[in-house]
Design goal:
Elements: E1 6-7, E2 13-19, H1 30-43, E3 47-51, H2 67-84, E4 89-92, H3 104-111, E5 125-127, E6 130-136, E7 143-150, H4 166-183, E8 189-193, E9 204-206, E10 215-216, E11 225-228, H5 252-256, E12 262-267, E13 276-279, E14 282-286, E15 302-309, E16 317-322, H6 323-327, H7 334-342, H8 347-369, H9 374-394
Parallel strand pairs: 1-6, 2-3, 3-4, 7-8, 8-12, 12-14
Antiparallel strand pairs: 2-15, 5-6, 6-7, 9-11, 10-11, 13-14, 15-16
Helix pairs in contact: 1-2, 8-9
Length: about 400
């Protein structure tokens, strides 16, 4: 679908479905497929934005056999239901997609075989996964809103995540001004990308580690604990895991807020988070992961819906549709879900958990080897086993 002219419906509405963190392999994950099909059928969106980590690039299944065919099949598993319904979809990438061994340009060619895949105008494109997508009014030849899909990068060589390059930020500024020159105004805009901007931490309060909602953070926020500000907490919406950002802030958010046209940014990456907050007039929020083939928030995995109204673009409605809402608590693959619900949320969290497990295991081994009374030996072994069980329960 090259350079489509997307429009608001005749009633002045436009519905976007954010699909993120599928972590797909060539074999279908039944609960992921069920969730995607169910949300598409219920919501009937006008556009699907796919915001990264579609591919489980580090998956062991890609290490043997015809990898190219396997990647194509993994992509087909979650795009075919969208394409079959004739719904346009736009793609950007996450940090795990390139790990499969194919560049984002090579992967983009695999998406473009689908009739519904949006191939953006070269004039409004920086490269694979980074482009501008205008959506026109129901009866207008001018865009009512503009979407920026931004590839936020992969893993950094020194650890952590890459930052959005300054060249890419300069590209955004150039497109913004080009649209301003063409239409005589700054077009209200939304941004979709995988990794959050640094400024998302302005939605949090730093708290003591004993606070019931405290979430431990790592790298540039190492040793700190945060919670979502009370004004953004409601129902089951809170900070479930640390916002994993790059180590270096290259000024993306500052650029996006220079002219005031960007009113919302939505991310993936941190699978369990599903909140929305506002900082400096910009909504920042998450789509929860929809993939059951990696860690997530149980049956609260889902997709974010954004309903725009061309009469007042900035006053939009957004909500999350979860697996639980559609199908209840019973899943097709309960063991798979239980396993992935327990694994660490990041490499940093995994290192901490692993060191604790090794320490407990060392206590058991040493106690078995030491010439100590049987009762003391039994107590030390029991303590080590209890420690391992506690760490696993907290994963």
């Amino acid at each position: 679908m090259r350079n489509p002219k997307l429009r608001f419906r005749k009633d002045g509405t436009f519905k976007i479905l954010q699909l993120t963190d599928v972590h797909g392999i060539c074999k279908k994950t039944p609960d992921t497929s069920r969730l995607i099909e169910g949300v598409l059928d219920q919501e009937k969106p006008d556009l699907v934005v796919i915001t990264g980590d579609q591919i489980k690039g580090y998956g062991l299944s890609y290490l043997h056999g015809d990898k190219h065919k396997k990647v194509e099949q993994a992509i087909d598993n979650y795009t075919e239901p969208i394409d079959r319904r004739g719904i346009p979809f736009a793609v950007t990438f996450g940090n795990h997609d390139p790990q499969v061994g194919y560049s984002t340009a090579e992967q983009m060619k695999m998406y473009e075989v689908f009739d519904s895949c949006i191939i953006p105008d070269e004039e409004l494109s920086y490269g694979p996964g980074t482009f501008s997508l205008p959506i026109y009014g129901s009866e207008s030849e001018e865009p009512a809103v503009n979407l920026y899909m931004i590839d936020s990068g992969g893993s950094a060589p020194e650890g952590g995540y890459q930052s959005v390059e300054t060249e890419k930020i300069d590209w955004y500024r150039a497109v913004r001004e080009k649209l301003h020159e063409k239409w005589g105004r700054y077009v209200p805009s939304m941004v979709f990308q995988h990794i959050p901007v640094h400024e998302i931490y302005n939605l949090f309060d730093e708290v003591d580690k004993k606070h019931p909602d405290a979430v431990k953070t790592y790298r540039i926020h190492k040793g700190q604990f945060f919670k979502l500000k009370d004004e953004f907490v409601h129902d089951d919406v809170k900070l479930y895991e640390p916002a994993s950002i790059s180590d270096v802030n290259t000024g993306e958010f500052d650029a996006l807020t220079e002219k005031g046209e960007v009113f919302a940014m939505y991310f993936g990456h941190d699978h369990q988070n599903n909140f929305v907050g506002n900082y400096k007039g910009v909504d920042m929020g998450y789509g929860p992961s929809c993939g059951f083939n990696e860690y997530g928030n149980g049956v609260e995995r889902g997709c974010r819906i954004i309903e725009l109204n061309e009469k007042d673009i900035r006053k939009y409605r957004t909500y999350v549709v979860t697996y639980r809402q559609l199908f209840g608590k019973k899943v097709i693959k309960p063991f798979q879900k239980s396993f992935y619900d327990k694994i660490p949320t990041s490499v940093d969290a995994g290192v901490v958990a692993g060191s604790k497990l090794l320490a407990c295991l060392a206590v058991i081994i040493v106690s078995l080897c030491l010439p100590i009374p049987p009762l003391v030996k039994a107590l030390l072994c029991a303590g080590g086993i209890a420690g391992i069980a506690f760490v696993i329960a907290r994963l």
